Amino acid sequence: MEDQELITIARQNAEKLEVNSDNPNEAILKTLLLCFAKLVEQGKPKEEVFAALGQLNHETIFVSLARKYSRWEKQGDFKSDSIDNEEEIEKTEEDLEWEKHQARSSAYIRRQAALFDALPKERLLPYKDQYVFFEEDEIKDYDKDREDLIDRVYETVGYRAIFVHKVV
């Protein structure tokens, strides 16, 4: 997805959210969407912006929100409390596949984190103050620059869930 398309989606969805005292989640979400749009518009790499906004998994939250709002508008169900009433929206096959993908990605990350945490400290010494790409009990790549490492890993393994961690 192109940066301009993400900026447009973020701004459109932020406009749909009303900031009111009844639903503070909407105020938070609106702020995040507007911050994202502004930073990417100013030339910040979207990956850095996502990381800064709470280690979000790239386009996940924004694409997911765009789908939901689009469906709510088509059904005429968009209202200020829509975020709290997701169960009222019938899930499409695409939504179910997306949820399965998210569940598999989360399970993968949890497994890799547990394996990483179990590593003996001396095995990590050569990588001190560097980011490592860790998978199945093996450090497969490393770099001082997180973004360079992530770009290189995606080129190698494709765009999928990966476990990257800084060794301290």
Question: Please, could you describe this protein's structure?
Answer:
This protein is mainly alpha-helical and 168 residues long. It has two domains: 88 residues, no CATH class; 55 residues, no CATH class. 57% of the residues lie in helices and 8% in strands. It has a three-stranded antiparallel sheet. About 10% of the residues have low confidence.
**What structural class do helix, strand and pairing data support?**
mainly alpha
Q: Span between N and C termini?
A: 33 Å
Strand fraction equals 5-15%
Low-confidence stretches: 55-59, 77-88
**Count of the domains:** 2
Label the overall shape.
globular
Order of helices and strands: HHHHHHEEHE
Number of strands: 3
Number of helices: 7
Average predicted confidence as pLDDT: 75
The spatial strand order of the largest sheet comes to 2-1-3
* Sheet with most strands: 3 strands, antiparallel
CA radius of gyration:
19 Å
Which range best describes the helical content: under 10%, 10-25%, 25-40%, 40-55%, 55-70% or over 70%? Answer: 55-70%
